[in-house]
Design brief:
The protein is mostly helical. It has 5 helices and no strands. The relative contact order is 0.12. This is TLC domain-containing protein.
Length: 112
């Protein structure tokens, strides 16, 4: 269905975040995987904003996709030291949210 003004506002704010993050990842962090990931997000969001359709789907998808990120970063950056209980919990939560979100929730989300 058609996107609501609220969905368009959320998408615009998210689009701004991803564009700023692309510059950060490109020029400061030199993290090319994140640049590619964020570029695909930007292209998808521009497509949804341009067509004005299915805003709720991409908002839900982005939420599900980013839900597992803090747990990934916690053990990837060493915030949860390798071999610790905190790292094990973070890895477990990341796996459950990543797989559950993409295979579970992602499977049932489809445009009507």
């Amino acid at each position: 269905g058609a996107s609501t003004p609220e969905e368009a506002t959320l998408l615009s704010a998210s689009l701004g975040y991803f564009i700023v993050d692309i510059f950060l990842c490109t020029f400061i962090l030199k993290d090319w995987e994140s640049v590619a990931h964020h570029t695909f997000c930007v292209v998808g969001e521009i497509g949804v904003l341009y067509t004005g359709l299915s805003g709720y789907i991409i908002i839900a998808f982005l939420f599900i996709a980013e839900l597992s990120s803090p747990f990934l970063y916690a053990f990837e950056t060493g915030f949860a030291p390798e071999g610790s209980l905190a790292a094990l919990v973070c890895q477990g939560l990341f796996a459950v949210l990543f797989i559950g979100g993409r295979l579970g929730a992602g499977t049932v989300m489809q445009p009507k």
